[in-house]
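Justification of computing resources. Each target in the renewal requires a structure prediction run like the one illustrated here; the chain below, 325 residues long, is used simply to show the kind of job we budget for.
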Amino acid sequence: MKKATFLLLIFLATLSCKDDKTTYAETAVTAQSRMNHVVVVIENEDWTGTIGDAIRNALADPFLGVINEEPAFSLNQIQPKNFNGFATKSRNIVIVDKDKPKGHAHKKNVYARPQSVFYFAGTQEDVISEIEANAEKIKQLISKNEITEKGRQIANSTLSEDKSLEENLGIKMNLPAIYKTAREEDNFLWIERPTPNGTMNILAYAVPAGTITNDSTQVQSIIDTRDKIGRKYVHGRLEGSYMVTENVFAPYVKEEIIDNKPALEARGRWDLKNGFMAGPFVNYIIEDEVNERQVVVEGFVFAPQKNKRDLLFELEAILRSTKIL
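Resulting structure tokens:
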């Protein structure tokens, strides 16, 4: 059953890619923009009206897991007459044109590369309908584009030469040199990066195959596994404090593929039992059938009074580079 699900995911991924690879003029100009930003080319009156509302509802909904409801993407509006020069070099662009017949399109690398440009045309009602119908696909394509670019940037940076992950767990990931091992035990690593007033953290460990279930108890098995690891290894400064999964909101779980292997992605919020710390986390449970285990890699952020979306995004890009040796 797991193998069938994995093959289906590969097949669906192949289908989605075909839609995105229509031949367009390639360019050698490098796209330049901040992570998770989208340029929206639209007239002012439409941006402040119902079309703008539809775009904001589609792309600026809360980023999963963060506590203060940061938007999934930051939107920068620009009028069509001003869309030139540097503005065309953004990695992600949405263009609204009410003077053309109804329709939508996704084109890659139109003005720079890597780049995704989304076109919406027609009447006000047409544009809103097309945006609402394609909102999920647009978010997926932008997220994929941003993760790929962030992963490329990390891979081209100075990477850690620490072999602890390989020697302890038999895995490898593109880990920037600024990340340092904070705790190492048999079959467990805690890697940390200091930030102003906080930390970015990576946990890596393995559990026996089947520990994270594939049935109706899946979410609870993820919570139980996280809480067991937190109680044993991830302690706060206050005596008796340790990391647990926040119990107000259950983690959001979906199927993924990491290192060409079936995996689960879980997003949620962590809390410090008997302490006063909290924040978002994302983890990946990777099926390692050869070694009869599940490899868990997790990123969590502690950044009080700071925006956490882009910090968690960096951790996600690192975790997605995981390779089982």
